[in-house]
Amino acid sequence: MSMRRRTLLKVIVLGDSGVGKTSLMNQYVHKKFSQQYKATIGADFVTKELQIDDRLVTLQVGFLVQFNGQERFQSLGVAFYRGADCCVLVYDVNVMKSFDSLENWHEEFLKQANPSDPRMFPFTVLGNKIDIDGGNSRVVSEKKAKDWCTSKGNIPYFETSAKEDYNVDAAFLCIAKTALSNEYDQDIYFQAMPETVPDNEQSGGCAC
Question: What pTM did the predictor assign?
Answer without folding.
Answer: 0.81
